[in-house]
Amino acid sequence: MNQQQVIAFATDFGSVDPCVGICEGVMYGIAPEAKVVHLNHNISPQNLNEAIFNLFISYKYFPDKTVFCFVIDPGVGSTRKAIALEFQANGKTMYLVCPDNGIATPLLNHEQVLRVVSLDNSAFHLPNTSTTFHGRDIFSPAAAQLAKGTDISNLGSALTKEGLVKLELAQPCLKDGSWQAQIIHIDRFGNLVTNLPSQKLEPPLTNWIVTKQDQSLSPIYPNFASVEIGETVAYTGSSGFIEIGVRNSNAHKALKIQLGDSLKLSKA
């Protein structure tokens, strides 16, 4: 291997059990020169929307030939397929290894998918494959093989991208000059991430006000420092979406806004 290849690893396994470490051990046993980046192992159990958000905001920042291994798998052991995709993003070729349960949705929506395979070649599985731990027995070996330089076509049967599971994600909508947005993520700080990219708003952004059920929350400001400590602030987050926060506090708790709640953005 000419350069150290990256495996970006994300799961809902958490840190209480040894599952993450076991998977990493499998990866290094196959591709000892790879670099495993632990992207996030605290995705909520079985939460596919959260997994999709983590993938969407992450993959553009990784180097060429990165292998993303996402194991959020409520259908483990069922008839759902285990898959690998080769795709292009920002002029780079990358890979995704995951269950065929919708995790690949952001790539199917936004990137050029070059090849897809079902991970059905048992020669690249661990022996005595478990029905409950495909992260160890199927996905980790596949990710390591790709990082090692194995061609994706060797891992299993070819599939079409049109046949993959694709989830319908909530989209912002423009109605009577105002945008209707939805909370799609709540981060560790309690900041509320909407599904509205700020680029959809007619500039200047400071002309827009965020409301919930006709209660004004905040105009859009450049940053947290634009308001006093304890005040609500709307802003463009690092992922490019409009977010709501409370400076030095937790907006989720303070404003009692939940995942899936709707917000309205209107011109002042």
Report on this model:
The chain has 268 residues and is α+β, with helices and mostly antiparallel strands. It has 2 domains: 6-163, 3-Layer(aba) Sandwich (Rossmann fold); 173-267, Bacterial fluorinating enzyme like (Elongation Factor Tu (Ef-tu), domain 3), CATH 2.40.30. It has helices at 19-30, 48-56, 105-110, 134-148, 251-255, and strands at 6-11, 35-40, 67-71, 82-89, 92-99, 112-118, 158-159, 173-175, 178-186, 192-197, 208-212, 215-219, 232-236, 241-246, 262-267. Strands 8, 9, 10, 11, 12, 13, 14 and 15 form an 8-stranded antiparallel β-sheet that branches. It has a 7-stranded mixed β-sheet with strand order 2-1-3-5-4-6-7, with helices on both faces. A hairpin with a 2-residue loop joins strand 11 and strand 12 (215-219).
In a few lines, what is going on in this structure?
With 268 residues, the chain is an alpha+beta fold. The protein has helices at 19-30, 48-56, 105-110, 134-148, 251-255; strands at residues 6-11, 35-40, 67-71, 82-89, 92-99, 112-118, 158-159, 173-175, 178-186, 192-197, 208-212, 215-219, 232-236, 241-246, 262-267. Helices cover 18% and strands 32% of the residues.
